[in-house]
# Entry
Amino acid sequence: MRATSLIGALVVALGLTAGCGDSGGVGGAGEKPATQKTAAAGEPVTLKYWTWFPPESTLKTTIAAFEKSNPGIKIELREFEAADYQKQLPLALSGGEQLDIVGVQVSAMTNSVHEQLRPVREWEANLPAGWRDKLAASPVAQSEKIAKDGVLYSIPMGSIGSAIMLSNTAMLGELGVAVPKTMDELKAAVDKIKAAKPDVKPVVFSGEPYWQEEMLFTLSGQTAPTLSDDLLAGRKPWNAPQMVQALTDYKSLFDKGIFDKSVLSLKGNRPAELFGSGQAAFLIDGSWQSSMLSDIYRKANKISIADVGASAVPVLGGGQPAARAFAEGGLSIPKTSQHVKEAAAFIQFMTMGPGVAEWAKDLVLVPTFTDFQVDPSVLTSQSAKDGYGAVIQVINGGGSARDSNQAFLNQVEGNAILDVIRGETAPDKAADHLQEEWSSGRYAAQ
# Structure
């Protein structure tokens, strides 16, 4: 099962403010696209735009900026809750609803609506020459690969990924600790924090089974970038040497005291709460927590830390920074659209134009646009600016996909990793168990 879209729920869960994972039908395969209309001179074109993200308050500002620079085009927005959108959009498109632009949850929705969408190749002539060069290659490739026919149907606004590490910069400055780049440096920082602030947890993250996969494959991705992709695609067995090594390496971080086993009791939003209240020095979570880098966001949500930085998870051994990421928030043109040129102009504005700086203020998605610059009012400290740059680099860096077989993860994988960490199962035995369960046929690819 592809990782389902998180960003709709995250907008609510994070309390964001405006400032700051198959059907046919009408317009499906074998049917002719709707005839495109050309507006008469001076007559405005109204584009019907359905989506679930960004929040309406953010989109209104972004749309106003687009309409100001494109006075002949008006946008008629309809926004949905994320779960409802996954039901309503396929129904509307298969029923012939005339829409001009639709947001697509790339991982969760592409294959349920692609037969009603125009391939990008049919309308890319309306985009700037060399438009792909303006976007990070990995999210675009993921958006293309996710479709069963391997065709690109949407241009991704941005990506989400994990894991990354947030830092209480003010606390680190007080202790004379630099943001660690390696696990050895993190160990030194942990020791210093324990000695100076015994009531503070040095490193926190979720102890829930699902998050153990994120931790494991972020670390393994530093030396074996395709391991999780290969396992989930069946190209490698779950007891491959690289998997045994990954389990061994992850357990070693607890054995060395870099991570404390007490974090395994943390559930839900508790790790973020501890970090946000100054009771933890480092938070390992997803890129969606980048909102904490914003002073505006922290004030609006009563987060007491004076300054926050971010980085890739420190590297273990001789690897390179890594994270698992997947494109989200794709924008597509349905076959029913009669204003393709104008729709393409809006998609350009939202994915590789001035609109990116408007909607990206919420810091939920890492923009695909390579020339993106954060609004100066959002990130006011140098540590926040440098930190978000590091997040962008690692999320758009072409690592493995943030993908899971949800049933296997929930019923087998997550707990198997926890058994290794707790010393209840040896890494090789856990890997053998994972392969035995994977081969059982009970967890067919979803």
The two ends are 4 Å apart (CA to CA). Strands lie at 45-51, 73-79, 101-104, 155-168, 201-204, 280-286, 308-312, 324-332, 366-367. The chain has 17 helices and nine strands. The mean pLDDT is 90.
